[in-house]
Design brief:
The structure holds 2 protein chains of 2 kinds. By secondary structure, chain A is of the alpha/beta class. Chain A has 11 helices and 15 strands. Chain A folds into 2 domains: 63 residues, Phospho-2-dehydro-3-deoxyheptonate aldolase, domain 1 (Alpha-Beta Plaits, 2-Layer Sandwich), CATH 3.30.70.1140; 256 residues, Aldolase class I (TIM Barrel, Alpha-Beta Barrel). An 8-stranded parallel beta barrel of chain A has the order 7-8-9-10-11-12-13-14, surrounded by 7 helices. Chain A has a 4-stranded antiparallel β-sheet with strand order 2-3-1-4, with helices on one face. In chain A, α3 packs parallel to α11 and α6 packs parallel to α7. By secondary structure, chain B is mostly helical. Chain B has 3 helices and no strands. Chain B is flat, with a radius of gyration of 15 Å. The chains are: A alpha/beta, B mainly alpha. At the A-B interface, α11 of A face α1 of B.
């Protein structure tokens, strides 16, 4: 149950309400919303207690989430959440493009990929340093060195960086290199130990949808992050496993209008992993923006044929520029706009 | 005019406005109204919208974007 109090409710009354609930053994959670106080009950509320609380004059509305989440529910925040990733806003009418190579491979490759991403209009640089590969014999990433190279490339091109974390033990390396957004990959979406461990790191988290995760399971994972201190969560739809073998996954755009009803969190779409085929990525990206995506995550590589991972789905420079141009038009038609790039660092 | 036609035209007008807003925003960010590519655009105007009208529209677009850039200059 989420209690939306009237704007301007005195703090003393909010505290009284919270104490009333907690005295009855019901834990509560306060919204970071500034416009109005919002209180969610964590535990099940007995019907008599519910009736008494709802009758408080300060309670303007009561929202019952459709799932077992509280803080990520639409009713827990008045507006859409805008996540600040190193100065780039994600959500709230501002659309971002996260681009970069699947894996950081060497200094030249990541610098070239960053230059392409920047020139094409992307705001954020992505790149994997720790890679969750299906085969234990496949390239596993450069680890800490990869984060270092990604940080250098991001700094050189004025782009905050996003990289996937697979294990809580890697967190110090991510913090040491100032990774602006921690990505939790599809395979770790329900690694609750990892989610709890990184939630306190005070970094935005890009939470990819699990390969076969339902939308409710996905939001439950986002709630894990929020419940443990991280309200800056970006959801990322990257395709789900279905009976269809023609594409790597099936991009589920249904999540966009549905999650906008269920949650206040921004949603980014990754058409690269969904399709697995470069030619399908631009139309899927256009569809995603048209359907309300707050951002796009795409892979780009200066020489896809030499890529150590997922080269087959990487875009070339010209293709990425076209995708970003299309996204700009689709955003404008739907009354939104592409986020601005951060200024380039001064030469001196 | 039938209501659905009126609705469709209103939708397109809003979309045009949104695109113009985006163009002005981008021009402001770039610090100039940007290339109009007028001849190229007019060469593409082979549909219902006549090229001479397109020229007038684009002249107004450039003027509007230049005003957005100038306004920013005045603010900074």
């Amino acid at each position: 149950m989420i209690l939306r109090l009237r704007p301007g409710t005195p703090e003393a009354r909010v505290t009284a309400l919270v104490e009333h609930l907690e005295a009855a053994g019901v834990r509560t959670s306060r919204s970071p919303e500034r416009g109005r106080p919002i209180v969610a009950t964590v535990d099940k509320v007995p019907s008599e207690l519910r009736a008494s609380v709802v009758a408080w004059p300060e309670v303007e509305a009561v929202v019952d989430p459709v799932g077992e989440w509280r803080r990520v529910d639409r009713g827990f925040f008045d507006g859409p959440t805008v996540v600040d990733v190193g100065g780039v806003p994600v959500g709230g009418g501002s659309i971002c493009v996260v681009a970069g190579p699947c894996s950081v491979e060497n200094p030249d490759q990541v610098q070239e990929a960053a230059a392409i991403a920047r020139r094409s209009g992307a705001q954020l640089l992505r790149g994997g340093a720790y890679k969750p590969r299906t085969s234990p014999y496949a390239f596993q990433g450069l680890g800490r060195e990869g984060l270092h190279l990604l940080r250098e490339a991001g700094d050189a091109h004025g782009m905050p960086i996003v990289s996937e974390i697979m294990d809580a033990a890697q967190l110090p390396a991510f913090l040491d290199h100032g990774v602006d957004c921690l990505q939790v990959g599809a395979r770790n979406m329900q690694n609750f130990t990892l989610l709890k461990s990184i939630a306190g790191a005070r970094r935005p988290v890009l939470l990819k949808r699990g390969l076969s995760a339902t939308i409710k399971e996905w939001l439950q994972s986002a709630e894990y992050l929020a419940a443990h201190g991280c309200d800056e969560v970006i959801l990322c739809e990257r395709g789900i496993r279905t009976f269809e073998p023609a594409t790597r996954n099936t991009l589920d755009l249904t999540v966009l209008p549905l999650l906008q009803q269920w949650s206040h969190l921004p949603i980014v779409v990754d058409p690269s992993h969904a399709a697995g085929i470069p030619g399908l990525i631009p139309p899927l990206a256009r569809a995603a923006v048209a359907a309300g995506a707050d951002g796009l995550a795409v892979e780009v590589h200066p020489r896809p044929e030499e890529a150590k991972s997922d080269g087959g789905q990487a875009l070339l420079a010209g293709e990425l520029a076209g995708l970003v141009a299309d996204a700009r038009v689709m955003a404008a038609v739907t009354g939104r706009h592409l986020a601005s790039q951060l200024p380039l660092p001064s030469a001196g | 005019m039938q209501p659905q036609h009126r609705n469709h035209l209103s939708f397109l007008d809003r979309a045009l406005l949104n695109l113009l807003e985006e163009r002005a925003r981008l021009a402001r960010e770039a610090g100039g109204p940007g290339p109009a590519n007028l001849e190229d655009l007019c060469a593409r105007a082979t549909g219902d919208f006549p090229a001479h009208a397109l020229r007038e529209v684009m002249a107004a677009v450039e003027q509007g974007c230049a005003a957005a850039v100038a306004r920013q200059g005045g603010q900074s």
